[in-house]
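Q: Convert this sequence to structure tokens.
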Amino acid sequence: MMTRRPFAFSLRLALALMLWPANSHAAEWNIDQLMQGLAQTRSDRARFFEKKFIAMLDKPVESSGELLYRAPDHLEKRTLKPKPESMTVDGGTLIIERGRQTHRLQLQDYPELAAFIDSIRGTLAGDRKSLERNYRLHLEGTAERWTLQLLPLNEKMLAVVKRIHIAGVRDSVRSIEITQADGDSSLMLIGKIAAP
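A:
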């Protein structure tokens, strides 16, 4: 019996030492590394599928289309279904096109909207400073599969958005989940478009 305890202890020690470098390496991954990886993408095109859960409706509202991003601050959301619509953010201007109507907004006149848009653009650009102007950041997971939670700092923004969860795989965003202060929410799933 005396020979088993040292063996069991030695086995546990060996396992701990084998696992220690892997755990240590995983602990080194942080928000700065995530942002550096995301910043490497200068342009991207992806498909999206979005579900909006609205308390007043029995079923979620579904839409799908394409997203286009060009660093550092150009973002397009082209909805193809159920109805064609496009939203383009270029610098400080938001352009919304529905049918024959076009609306142009200057984001400086709508600070809460600007903060919301910057949550997505800032993440895609890997711009931590931009994100931290409006949100408290919390990162979970590993470099292979991560979730970045954004919690608004501004009370006016908190009255609209409770939190934003952005999940990804390596240097790619794969989903954006928004929980509004009123309980409504949306989930956008993002998938790469294969190169021709």
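Residues 13-26 have pLDDT under 50 and may be disordered.
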